[in-house]
Each structure stands twice: as structure tokens, then as C-alpha cells.
Design brief:
mainly alpha, 2 helices
């Protein structure tokens, strides 16, 4: 049982890194969208949808990590 928990914890460590990357990419995409829309006058049609999907995935991965660490709002 302890070996399984170590595997799960190492998987959660990788998920935490992935979550940070996803949130960083989402932030960059949103900043590029705002700059391209208001400064260049050319909105990117794909950026809003990508940001939405990245936000949805980050919510589910973050909830799984919070559940493992017992940090969900009770």
C-alpha cells in the first residue's frame, strides 16, 4: 500500500508541474489575444477557445490535486 501511495504522489508531482505549465500557457494566450485585438486590430479566433479549454482542464486537475492533499473547501 505504501508503494502505491508513493507512485500516486510522484504522479501528483508531475500533475502539479503540468498544471503550472497549463496556467502559464493560458496566461500567455490571453495576453497575446488582448494585444492582438486592441493594439493590432486583428483578433485571433482560436485563442479564446483554447483559453477556455485550458481553464476547464486546470480546474479538474487542480481539484484532483486538492482532493489528494485534503485542501478542498468543506
Amino acid at each position: 500500500m505504501a508503494a502505491l501511495l508513493r507512485v500516486i504522489d510522484s504522479f501528483n508531482k508531475w500533475l502539479t508541474i503540468l498544471l503550472g505549465v497549463v496556467l502559464g500557457v493560458m496566461s500567455v494566450v490571453i495576453i497575446v489575444q488582448v494585444l492582438s485585438r486592441y493594439i493590432f486590430g486583428f483578433p485571433l479566433p482560436w485563442s479564446e477557445e483554447l483559453a477556455r479549454y485550458l481553464m476547464a482542464y486546470s480546474i479538474f486537475v487542480g481539484a484532483a490535486l486538492a482532493l489528494r492533499n485534503q485542501q478542498l473547501i468543506a
